[in-house]
Amino acid sequence: MKESGRKALLREHRRENIARRLQRKPRSQKVSDFVLGAIDGCVTTFAVVSGAFGAGFSPLVILVMGFANLLADGFSMAVSNFEAVDAQRKHLAAARRTEERHIALVPEGEREEIRQIFANKGFSGETLESIVTTITADRELWIETMLTEEYGLGQERVSPLVSALVTFTAFVFIGVVPLTPFLFSSLEQQVQFNISALLAGLMFFVIGMLKSLVYARPVLRSGFSTLLLGGAAAALAFLIGYWLRALFGIDSV
């Protein structure tokens, strides 16, 4: 590791900086929802554009197909995300009720679960008993510990409606970008498609860079990775459209 990198790590691990970092709230789920919607919106819409262009469809048909797909798929994805987050929230609530009931009915059994959980982590003797006593003395801490250790559930409270709205907004906002060149009828269709491809590529790269903030990956590598994957999806759609056009002898529509 370079000396400058080591110095930065040492600075991050000073007592006051550790305390500040641990008190910081986890990164909002909204960022993940936005990245999810944005990537899918751009990939899906530009795939439609590429497939329709490869099939020889007119700009008007491309716009109709693109906007219909944009709204329908965006809504579908938002609903799917709503259901997924809602199911996760209900699972967490059910697990919490279960633990509350168990602690009320069989507290000694639940204490033994805490004891075995931390014994498996390597604690023993007086240290282990001190941990058990400390945790079980605080009912809320006891429940939260069981949810994390036994069920593997995080404690972040996420609103299904907010997640769905963020996903839909990102899907539409980013997904509409590849369609904008086809709104300018004064441009030749090939030029429209070229501009659409450039805009889509830019969106893929920017979204990939944003994704790196969520998953703590190198910024440029994440940008190029998303660009490559999005471009591959678009190229596949174009080839299928072009192949079907040749297969069925479709003229420009």
Automatic annotation (TrEMBL):
The chain crosses the membrane at residues 34-54, 60-82, 161-183, 195-214, 226-244. GO terms for biological process: intracellular manganese ion homeostasis. GO terms for molecular function: manganese ion transmembrane transporter activity. Keywords: Membrane, Transmembrane, Transmembrane helix. It holds the Pfam family VIT1. It is found in: Endomembrane system. It is a multi-pass membrane protein. Its main location: membrane. InterPro entries: Ccc1_fam. GO terms for cellular component: endomembrane system. This is VIT1/CCC1 transporter family protein. It comes from Microbulbifer thermotolerans. The lineage of its organism: Bacteria, Pseudomonadati, Pseudomonadota, Gammaproteobacteria, Cellvibrionales.
